[in-house]
Design brief:
CATH topology: UDP N-Acetylglucosamine Acyltransferase, domain 1
Largest sheet: 10 strands, mixed
Number of helices: 0
Oligomer: single chain
Helix content: under 10%
Order of helices and strands: EEEEEEEEEEEEEEEEEEEEEEEEEEE
Number of strands: 27
Radius of gyration: 18 Å
Length: about 200
């Protein structure tokens, strides 16, 4: 691998010179980073991953092998996108117009997926734009997200539905009573009110 300006890029990766890449980021074999994409510092872009034009990702983002992040997605700091997961960008996908002409860039409007800080998207999950996945949420492997996901939510299935809550450590939280949830890994407490979860002060 060759390094330049604090970024490490595999010889077989395709990084457009108009992209902005933060220091300490590593881009592995066969990954493609398109024009005007922005990756923060300390990111890890796996083999065969794709980052579309104008996608913005924060620092310490990890895209596993063959993750596909289509424009205009927005990823916060510390986001994890698992192997072969897809963030879509076309609400009404068609290859052709109603009269059968091949669609071009002017024939549709890209809409993006938004992923909050610390959230994780499991292997082969699909997020259907324009959904938002909240901070520190966890989308299970193979899930298909068609609706917004609250902060700290654990969602599974097709279509994805909330089955619990997770903390910053990613472990399912345990109910303590009176709307209080506890992380079995760290002991941190969270409070549930009106279908949303917040960290206890």
């Amino acid at each position: 691998m060759t390094a330049f300006e604090g970024v490490t890029v595999a010889p077989t990766a395709d990084v457009d010179p108009r992209a902005t890449i933060g220091a300490g980021t590593r881009i592995w074999h066969l990954a493609q980073i398109r024009e005007d994409a922005v990756l923060g510092s300390g990111c890890n872009i796996g083999r065969g991953a794709y980052v579309g034009p104008g996608v913005i990702a924060g620092s310490n983002v990890k895209l596993q092998n063959h993750a596909l992040v289509y424009e205009p997605a927005r990823l916060g700091d510390g986001v994890f996108v698992g192997p072969a997961a897809v963030l879509t960008n076309d609400e009404y996908p068609r290859a052709v117009t109603p009269d059968g002409r091949l669609k071009g860039g002017d024939d549709w409007t890209a809409v993006g997926v938004t992923i909050g800080d610390g959230a994780s998207i499991g292997a082969r999950a699909v997020c259907i734009a324009p959904v938002t996945v909240g901070r520190w949420a966890l989308v299970a492997a193979g899930a298909v997200v068609t609706k917004d996901v609250p902060d700290f939510a654990l969602v599974v299935g097709v279509p994805a539905r909330r089955v619990g809550w997770v903390g910053r450590a990613g472990h399912p939280l345990t109910a303590k009573g009176d709307g209080v949830w506890v992380c079995p890994e760290t002991g941190a407490e969270y409070v549930e009110r009106d279908g949303s979860l917040t960290e206890s002060e």
